[in-house]
């Protein structure tokens, strides 16, 4: 990006708005809940985001980003700031439109659980594994696990926090130990912000496993990595499905091979 290979270079462009979104959710009919915290930066018409563990950002992080040059933030000591700044700039210069390879998918209005399930269907459509196969899910989202199982697929849940799934299954904590046991990897964009994405990408390449990303974090970053270890991306820029009950959209990308197929 800094070399101008992905559109206009950042130059002196500045972040005009910086904010964090903290959320706690417990969907109707679900035993457990979850928490989210997201750093978001606005550049031009776009909002770039990076999810973090709740409480992980030092106080004043958002305030220090407001008014800062994008180029400066790309060298920030905090990885989530660098990711959010990169995401915002790329989303402004390369928005999620069909001309850039995006396939929009509507997430209908509904309850938080309805919308979570609709997003899960849009994401899992990108996982090209035959029934009976196994998918390593990095970043446990119960709606994704349920959707995979409804299609006859086994799941290997993995998350740095460990714990158990909604159905009481143990959650592994080291995705690299599990890649060899699956037929495909389905991973959260949050791996970009916690530093685990590139080792996972390299491991998927080494094992010959397709890597599908569902991305609120880095929704404009990960499509640029199609064909470099990433097979497909379901990009979901801010505002996310859990923030509103009205209709919205996600944007799907697939890696196209030279013969016009997908891989």
Outline:
The protein is an alpha/beta fold and 263 residues long. The chain is built from seven helices and ten strands.
Describe this structure in words.
By secondary structure, this protein is of the alpha/beta class. The protein is built from 7 helices and 10 strands. The chain has helices at residues 61-65, 70-73, 79-93, 112-124, 142-150, 190-194, 197-207; strands at 17-25, 34-43, 46-52, 103-107, 134-138, 154-158, 184-188, 211-215, 232-235, 248-254. Strands 4-10-9-8-7-5-6 form a 7-stranded mixed sheet, with helices on both faces. Strands 1-2-3 form a 3-stranded antiparallel sheet. Strand 5 (134-138), helix 5 and strand 6 form a beta-alpha-beta unit. The longest helix has 15 residues, at 79-93. It starts with 16 loop residues before the first strand and ends in a 9-residue tail after the last strand. 43% of the residues are buried. The model has no long low-confidence stretch (mean pLDDT 93).
């Amino acid at each position: 990006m800094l070399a101008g290979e992905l559109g206009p270079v950042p130059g002196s462009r500045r972040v005009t708005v910086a904010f964090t979104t903290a959320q706690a959710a417990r969907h109707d009919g679900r035993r457990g809940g979850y928490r989210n915290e997201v750093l978001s930066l606005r550049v031009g018409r776009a909002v770039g985001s990076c999810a973090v563990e709740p409480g992980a950002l030092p106080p004043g992080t958002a305030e220090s980003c407001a008014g800062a040059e994008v180029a400066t933030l790309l060298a920030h000591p905090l990885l989530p700031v660098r990711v959010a700044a990169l995401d915002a700039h790329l989303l402004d210069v390369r928005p999620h439109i069909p001309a850039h390879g995006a396939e929009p998918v509507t997430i209908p209005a509904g309850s938080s659980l309805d919308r979570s399930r609709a997003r899960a269907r849009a994401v899992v459509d990108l996982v090209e594994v035959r029934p009976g196969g196994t998918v390593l899910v990095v970043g446990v989202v119960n709606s994704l696990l349920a959707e995979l199982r409804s299609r006859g697929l086994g799941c290997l849940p993995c998350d740095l926090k460990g714990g158990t799934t909604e159905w009481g299954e143990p959650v592994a904590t080291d995705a690299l130990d599990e890649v060899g046991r699956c037929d495909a990897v389905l991973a959260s964009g949050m791996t970009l912000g916690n530093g685990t994405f590139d080792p996972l990408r390299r491991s998927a390449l080494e094992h010959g496993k397709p890597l599908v990303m569902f991305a609120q974090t880095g929704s404009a970053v990960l499509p640029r990595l199609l064909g470099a270890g990433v097979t497909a991306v379901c990009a979901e820029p801010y505002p996310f499905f859990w923030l509103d009950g009205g209709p919205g959209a996600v944007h799907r990308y697939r890696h196209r091979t030279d013969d016009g197929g997908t891989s």
